């Protein structure tokens, strides 16, 4: 027992105070379930983008279970593309990559224990993993900077709600957060209203499609949801009508082509493998606040919400049986923080509604809010080379510094205005 305690002390102690690291990738033993030590341990990995220096501020790039851009061997490239050499950049390869955890919830018949799966892949485990890495690198009271987009942005805010006292600055882009949507009665899935307003015939043709029953509802929802990632905003209505026409004439050959083009076959194969277990847990956490009054309206399509629903059905079922007790983030904790937070939102985002992003920003006492005339992935800002400049300037300079103010002025043409 004494040797085990000594090993754990070495693994959890700081590696960087007063020194520089030569290696770029490390691993760390952590509890499989921080609330239940009896479940044993697992190993998480983290990686530096360059040689670590205690003289530089440290940025953690945060990805959640349904994001894969932070992976082994990727952080050097992420440091070069998103930031620069004035920072230490750390990427945490999440526990969703751990085969031991995924296999531990599958019995010898191939059945999944979704209650245990939820417990070990919930957001609380991820934020504790992030904090374990923070302490490992910078010591018990070490301070960090955080960056995340979409679901990773949501995880940043979840971390802030628990460990925000250790964060000087945080930058999130299109941070999904449906608690605010629900509380504000905001419908982020504007597909139906936008499409029918621009083409009044869409509603009748969609009703006919449903009556024909050529394709399952979950596939229809996924096709229209995935379309957002492959079609430019100004072409969406045309492409939605084109897809509806092909569905309505039961053109299975064209629909199979769409399934390949939109990567649906690959996604479904992935979802149905052990790798899909933590993804479904995370998607359940997204939709959880909306389940209070959720229902599918047969003749009205909301592809983003419906896709979440169908993707996380196993978790919804155990939740309805009260076999899991999900904990949601405490927004009151965020208001008390001194952390400087930059909220970047896209006006035409189909996933993270710009109105709830406004509400999110104003929860923080110290915040910047920029609503770009852009989409979920900020294509325009990235093409103009402004996305990473916003990151660098925000993290590099103090609030009110002229350098950041000048950059925001250059970004002004890309800000959305009513």
Descriptive account of the structure:
This protein has two domains: 2-181 and 329-414, 3-Layer(aba) Sandwich (Rossmann fold), CATH 3.40.50.1820; 191-320, no CATH class. 47% of the residues lie in helices and 12% in strands. The chain is built from 21 helices and eight strands. α10 (217-227) packs antiparallel against α11, α10 packs across α15 and α20 (387-396) runs antiparallel to α21 (402-411). By secondary structure, the chain is of the alpha/beta class.
Secondary structure topology:
Elements: H1 2-12, E1 25-31, E2 41-48, E3 58-61, H2 75-82, E4 88-93, H3 99-104, H4 114-121, H5 123-138, E5 144-149, H6 151-163, E6 167-173, H7 178-183, H8 191-198, H9 202-212, H10 217-227, H11 236-248, H12 252-261, H13 264-271, H14 276-287, H15 303-311, H16 313-320, H17 331-335, E7 340-346, H18 354-361, E8 366-372, H19 379-383, H20 387-396, H21 402-411
Parallel strand pairs: 3-4, 3-5, 5-6, 6-7, 7-8
Antiparallel strand pairs: 1-2, 2-4
Helix pairs in contact: 4-14, 5-6, 9-11, 10-11, 10-15, 14-15, 20-21
């Amino acid at each position: 027992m004494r040797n085990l305690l000594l090993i754990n002390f070495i693994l959890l102690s700081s590696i960087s105070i007063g020194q520089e690291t030569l290696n770029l990738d490390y691993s760390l033993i952590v509890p499989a379930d921080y609330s239940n030590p009896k479940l044993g341990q697992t190993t998480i990995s983290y990686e530096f983008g360059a040689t670590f220096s205690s003289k530089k501020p440290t940025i953690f790039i945060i990805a959640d279970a349904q994001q894969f851009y932070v992976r082994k061997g990727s952080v050097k490239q992420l440091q070069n593309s998103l930031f620069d050499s004035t920072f230490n950049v750390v990427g945490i390869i999440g526990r969703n990559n751990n085969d031991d955890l995924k296999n531990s919830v599958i019995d010898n018949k191939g059945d999944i224990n979704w209650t245990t799966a939820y417990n070990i892949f919930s957001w609380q485990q991820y934020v504790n993993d992030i904090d374990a890495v923070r302490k490992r690198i910078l010591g018990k009271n070490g301070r960090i900077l955080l960056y995340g987009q979409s679901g990773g942005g949501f995880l940043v805010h979840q971390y802030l709600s628990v460990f925000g006292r250790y964060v000087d600055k945080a930058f999130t882009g299109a941070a999904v957060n449906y608690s605010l949507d629900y509380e504000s009665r905001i419908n982020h899935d504007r597909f139906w209203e936008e499409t029918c307003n621009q083409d009044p015939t869409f509603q009748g043709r969609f009703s006919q499609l449903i009556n024909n029953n050529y394709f399952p509802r979950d596939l229809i929802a996924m096709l229209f949801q995935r379309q957002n990632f492959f079609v430019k905003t100004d072409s969406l209505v045309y492409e939605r009508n084109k897809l509806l026409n092909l569905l309505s004439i039961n053109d299975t050959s064209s629909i199979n082509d769409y399934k390949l083009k939109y990567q649906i076959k690959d996604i479904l194969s992935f979802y149905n493998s052990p790798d899909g277990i933590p993804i479904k847990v995370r998607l359940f956490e997204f939709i959880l606040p909306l389940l209070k009054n959720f229902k599918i309206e047969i003749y009205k399509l909301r592809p983003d919400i419906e896709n979440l629903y169908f993707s996380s059905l196993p978790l919804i079922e155990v939740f309805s049986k009260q076999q899991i007790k999900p904990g949601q983030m405490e927004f009151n904790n965020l208001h008390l923080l001194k952390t400087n937070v930059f909220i970047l939102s896209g006006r035409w985002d189909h996933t993270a509604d710009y109105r709830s992003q406004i509400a999110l920003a104003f929860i923080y006492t110290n915040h910047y809010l920029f609503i770009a005339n852009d989409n979920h992935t900020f294509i325009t800002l990235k093409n103009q080379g402004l996305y990473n400049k916003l990151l660098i300037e925000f993290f590099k300079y103090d609030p009110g510094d002229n350098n950041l103010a000048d950059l925001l002025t250059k970004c002004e043409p890309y800000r959305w205005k009513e």
